[in-house]
Amino acid sequence: MKRVGAWLHPSKASIHQSRSLTALDESAALQEAMRQAAYIVNDEVDKAEAELAKGNSPFHKLGSATTLFLRATLGFEKEMMEQAGVRLADAQDSASEYHRRALRDASTAHQSAIYPRGSEYALCHAESQLMSAVVGVLNESLSESLRGFYNLRKAFTTLQEIVDAENKYLEKHFSSSTTSLTSGTRSDTSTAPGKNASETNSGVLTPVDAKDADDDELEFVDAEESVSDQVTPRVYKGNLDGKPEQIATDAPSAAEKAEDQLDFASVSSDPIDIFIHSGAAMCFGLLQLLLSMVPPAFGKILSIFSFRGDRENGLRLLWRATAFKHNINGAMAGLVLLPFHNAAIALCDIHRREAYPTERLRQLLHEMRSIYPNSLLWLLEEARMHGAERDLETAIEVLKGDSKPTTLKQVEALRVFETSMACMFLHRYEECAQSFIRCIDLNNWSHGLYYYISGACYVELYRQYQHTDPTVAEQHKKKATELLHHVSANVGKKRFMARQLPLDVFIMRKIAKWEHRAQSRHCDFIDAIGVSPHEEMIYFWSGLKRMRPEHIAVSLASLEWSESQPTWKDEAADEKAILSLLKATCLRNLGKVAEAQTELKEHVLCHPVSAITACDHADNWPLPVAHYEKAICLWDQAGGQDGDRTSLKQCSDELAVVERWGSFDLDARIGLKLTTARETLRRIGISQ
Q: What would be one Gene Ontology cellular-component term for the protein (predicted)?
């Protein structure tokens, strides 16, 4: 793909190689592409692709690329990611070409009172870069992943400059309601001190800050090349945010309230202005949110690119974009907000009450389902909401109740996966196993994991019937053996940033551990398995947050099986630590916080690190995770965000232990919870 510096100053001949859109044509092309792109979020992706393919504008190409991007990110399929990458590159090239034309030929370009000429194409370019970055990071190649982070940096800067222009206009024309939101934005831009943006060359679109330029005649020029000298603005500045960084409070500030009261429809009714405004809010909000969710393990990588995210600000931007639900930007913002809250925040243990706005989310889901009634994506979110409310039975009914076919096999795979998980949390062992086996036919992301969980289900059934019905028990034992022996041949095929997937590494180590135990104990493979692998998976997938007391009672009974075995007194330290950790988590979720703390103190944290690591094929995660669980207990003991400050400080200290621990099994699955917990404490004034 061309460098931005190459196409910002093209030869005259290149400008007229194909017909430019007139301002009138451009508006019509945008509205047509937006209408066709809306099919994407109504489960009519094939129709969207067919309709968008008929157009050749950057808006059509962006929409077409979005269809493949959605398929690629929902299914994590390498072939689809490669196709999406090609189409996104084409969309970027098209956007850059049209942007160049807009700068060179003002007579045919759309004239906005708010944004620099060509901003709509700069936004298309940034959106394509953002999607390319996500595809790159998900790619199995380390070089592609790093290139993806660099694309994120470039998209970030372009978006920042677009909204700086919006700020300037709003401050001038709507100063009574927005002055407090828009002051000082230039000081936070990414141009290095002492340099004018026009003196540098990076391949990032930014507006020139020329003293003699008219407010309405800003243009995009090349931005700074040196990433190491740039400081990424911590917050998005638009009519959206211009406050200096400070410790946030629970109540929204006056600036935030003013932001939310500003109806952009009263600022402009121009479809192109609305596209730019909603697209910038959606993209910048998504970027801020993604950066804020990065686990501590990836912090060093992002520091190379001067990245910092702001979760609260990102969420405000995404909510603002949902004001335009009928266009693809607003719909995509909804597709970010709902999964973030239902599949992430709802499952975190330490967060403010305001972090999960139940009624607002229900209203958003209702509106999205009304506008896009055919999409199963909204149905998935409804099921997740029921799960977050500990109503897993209804979640399964919702997932199974709508049998209409979907044009996205990736969405069908997600529906089956969500059903499988709900069955796992409900201890519906055979149903869970069969459902995960079905995932193998629908998705190729982690077949080893699907076999592993299915096998773990039959291990539980074997243990249930071992002493009451030996014949049935033997059948389940045979099935468990068959499934678990499929694991080794089906892991290690996928990579993330050139490394094996953490879950693949985890389950392969478990299989090796059980094989070693079977050999050293002279017993069958299934009889060598230690603490319930099914309950381990429930923990790592945050199942206990979705289970009611009667479900947790079944988990406790499964854990007691290990303690009842005659070999338990001689069991390895890591297995004993796992069992007590899982038991403590069950007790905490039953509201028995004091008992949970005692279990952690006397039966997990009592083990020195050396005793754990000395075990064969050691599980090294119980100790750091126990410190995290202790932090949750202290949070609960304090009474949450308004509680005893001493307990909250102790909670922070326990989190710090985990943050300093280094790598351990599946640390990324704790990482998001850890990041959320730390941000929560920061916002209520508890420093590290």
A: mitochondrial outer membrane
pLDDT exceeds 90 at position 276: yes
pLDDT tops 60 at residue 383:
yes
Q: Which two tokens stand for residue 644?
A: 């005893």
3-state secondary structure of 207: strand
pLDDT digits (tens, 9 = 90+) for 444-503: 878 999 999 999 999 999 999 999 999 999 999 999 999 999 999 998 766 665 567 889
DSSP bridge pairs for 427: none
> What would the pLDDT profile of 143-184 be if each residue is shown by its tens digit?
666 777 778 888 888 888 898 888 888 888 876 544 333 333
145 with 139: CB under 8 angstroms? yes
Rounded distance between C-alpha atoms, residue 544 and residue 551, angstroms:
9
Contact, 275 vs 123, CB < 8 A?
yes
Q: Smallest Cα–Cα separation from 90: which of 35, 48, 139, 52?
A: 52
Phi, psi of 227 (to 5 degrees): -70, -35
The torsion angle over the Cα atoms of residues 652, 653, 656 and 657, rounded to 10 degrees, is: -140
Please give the biggest Cα pair distance in the chain: 88
Handedness of CA 22, 327, 183, 161 (dihedral sign): negative
34 within 8 A of 66, measured Cβ to Cβ: no
CA–CA separation, 156 and 67 (whole Å): 22
- Helix (H), strand (E), coil (C) string for 440-498: HHHCCCCHHHHHHHHHHHHHHHHHHHCCCCHHHHHHHHHHHHHHHCCCHHHCCCCEECC
Neighbours of 470 (CB within 10 A): 11
pLDDT of residue 71: 87
- Residue 351 contacts by C-beta under 8 Å, 6 or more apart in sequence? 345, 676, 677, 680
Please give the DSSP secondary-structure letter assigned to residue 298: G
pTM of the model: 0.83
